[in-house]
């Protein structure tokens, strides 16, 4: 049975109203005999005091940075970080982790001790609803009010584009052939699949733009091919790309495919997915059909579910949801709601020239700094000064010797108030870029956790 969207929203709205009513008396909905900290959505999670409160939803690259720097820049504000995962797992560097170049400990980090050190509250909870009218967030452990809200939910997989409302097909695809593009157990499942792979066809479907970290699927293909080569596994990697060519850093990746992995990687452009059968292991695309032994099936990306629940999603000219948060391009708050900021991958179009910022950890981290600064200025009663991010991504293409390529983006506002982008691709692979990549990761981890 499927539930249409209108009925779902009505039901969800009624749910929020009930929850909000339940919040009036702290812990009124606590069932007698239950330990206090088990919590429920109808409880008050944290009573609000006099200090301005900033609630940050999502403890990934953007949210963690915001929480830490807000405490430094606005010491009088109360900062609460809500995150559903118990541990931070970094997607950057994870392609190297898949092939055992780094340990799990390098890319996982603790939340609790870090939050205590930096003076913000970390609460591990699922954010269920955002009532922007009441300025209240409802979580699995209770509800809390905010003065400023920062949403940093990352992305969701749009399996509906492939399977409509058929949850069985979507669940089977995610369970058997995970994309591992959102931090959770999927990365471990993918690593296990690679390490158990005995040979045959390994297929990767690449989503249409805009997508999280566009060069990283090509890096992943190179790392998988390198792993096959190194371990004498008779495997072939087929990249089914929605795009008409490799980008960014196209010449650098194509050189790696041709010079390092001629017998291992086949690149297919314009491979728009028509249908996928995870049970029969079959894919039909505009560029041809394939059977596979294992696949990394990346459905199209959209802003994380929380951006939808908070009603932040923009509209197409036909009035349909466009999948991404509708923010003021310069100040990053929602159009029409200056108390709510959206940062990182969930952000929608910011410029007619290049449309979206690259959906990267580098940009999310920069957004965290920028929005912490904007809110601190507003808390102090001043007008925030415009700041723009930059972007830098390193992509490893060879394991022996270790070599990487890179791409950099810079931004400025032109005299019409439009953000302009400059892109610099470094296509020549080198060992120095690998060193810079690990230095970059170390500095960013230090910035969020140090
Ligand atoms: C394989 C791979 C390689 C990559 N390599 C690079 C790279 O080299 N360089 C680079 O700059 N970028 C890279 N990226 C991209 C990078 O990981 C993302 O752009 C970055 O994580 C975006 O940060 P974010 O804060 O927007 O989202 P995230 O980091 O995904 O954080 C979102 C957080 O919100 C939490 N959340 C969501 N909904 C809820 C809810 N309802 N309740 C509670 N918590 C919730 C999630 O659990 C998550 O922790 C790579 C990505 C992948 C997949």
Structural features, described:
Helices cover 31% and strands 28% of the residues. By secondary structure, it is an alpha/beta fold. The chain has two domains: 40-154 and 304-387, FAD/NAD(P)-binding domain; 161-302, FAD/NAD(P)-binding domain (3-Layer(bba) Sandwich), CATH 3.50.50. The protein has a six-stranded mixed β-sheet with strand order 5-2-1-9-22-21. Strands 13-12-11-17 form a four-stranded parallel β-sheet, with helices on one face. Strands 6-7-8 form a three-stranded antiparallel β-sheet, with helices on one face. A hairpin with a 2-residue loop joins strand 15 and strand 16. Residues 1-28 have low confidence and may be disordered. The chain binds flavin-adenine dinucleotide (FAD). The site of flavin-adenine dinucleotide has 36 residues, from helix 2, strand 2, helix 3, helix 9 and helix 11. Flavin-adenine dinucleotide binds next to helix 2, strand 2, helix 3, helix 9 and helix 11.
Structural class comes to alpha/beta
Distance between the termini: 49 Å
Ligand list: flavin-adenine dinucleotide
CATH architecture of the largest domain: 3-Layer(bba) Sandwich
Task: Give the mean pLDDT.
Answer: 93
**Integer tally of domains:** 2
**What is the fourth-level CATH superfamily of the largest domain?**
FAD/NAD(P)-binding domain
Which spans of ≥5 residues are poorly predicted at pLDDT below 50?
1-28
CATH topology of the largest domain: FAD/NAD(P)-binding domain
So what's the overall shape?
globular
The main sheet orders its strands as 5-2-1-9-22-21
In total, the number of strands is 25
């Amino acid at each position: 049975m499927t539930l249409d969207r209108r009925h779902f929203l009505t039901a969800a709205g009624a749910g929020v109203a009930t929850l909000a009513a339940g919040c009036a008396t702290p812990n009124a909905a606590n069932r007698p005999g239950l330990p206090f900290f088990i919590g429920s959505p109808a409880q008050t999670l944290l009573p609000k005091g006099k200090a301005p409160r900033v609630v940050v939803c999502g403890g990934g690259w953007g949210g963690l940075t915001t929480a830490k720097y807000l405490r430094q820049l606005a010491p009088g504000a109360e900062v609460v970080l809500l995150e559903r995962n118990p541990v931070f797992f970094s997607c950057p560097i994870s392609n190297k982790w898949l092939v055992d170049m780094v340990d799990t400990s390098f890319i996982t980090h603790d939340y609790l001790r870090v939050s205590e050190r930096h003076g913000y509250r970390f609460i591990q909870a699922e954010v269920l609803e955002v009532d922007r009218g009441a300025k209240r967030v409802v979580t699995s452990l209770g509800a809390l009010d905010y003065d400023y809200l920062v949403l940093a939910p990352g992305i969701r997989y749009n399996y509906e584009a492939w399977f409509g409302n058929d949850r069985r097909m979507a669940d089977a695809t995610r369970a058997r052939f995970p994309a591992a593009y959102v931090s959770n157990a999927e990365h471990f499942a993918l690593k296990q699949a690679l390490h158990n792979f005995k040979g045959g066809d390994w297929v990767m479907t690449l989503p249409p733009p805009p997508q999280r970290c566009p060069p990283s699927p090509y890096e992943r293909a190179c790392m998988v091919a390198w792993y096959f080569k190194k371990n004498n596994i008779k495997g072939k990697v087929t990249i089914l790309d929605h795009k008409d060519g490799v980008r960014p850093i196209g010449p650098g990746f194509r050189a790696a495919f041709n010079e390092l992995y001629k017998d291992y990687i086949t690149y297919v452009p314009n491979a728009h997915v028509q249908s996928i059968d995870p049970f029969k292991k079959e894919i039909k695309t505009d560029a041809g059909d394939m059977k596979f032994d294992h696949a990394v099936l990346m459905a199209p990306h959209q802003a994380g579910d929380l951006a939808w629940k908070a009603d932040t999603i923009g509209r197409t000219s036909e009035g349909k949801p466009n999948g991404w948060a509708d923010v003021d391009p310069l100040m990053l708050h929602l159009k029409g709601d200056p108390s709510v900021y959206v940062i990182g991958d969930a952000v929608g179009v910011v410029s007619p020239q290049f449309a979206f910022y690259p959906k990267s950890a580098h940009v999310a981290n920069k957004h965290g700094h920028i929005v912490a600064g904007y809110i601190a200025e507003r808390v102090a009663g001043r007008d925030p000064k415009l700041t723009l991010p930059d972007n830098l991504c390193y992509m490893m293409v060879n394991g022996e010797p270790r070599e990487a390529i890179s791409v950099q983006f810079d931004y400025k506002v032109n005299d019409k108030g439009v953000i302009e982008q400059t892109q610099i691709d470094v296509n020549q692979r080198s060992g120095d870029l690998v060193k810079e990549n690990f230095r970059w990761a170390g500095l960013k981890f230090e910035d969020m956790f140090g």
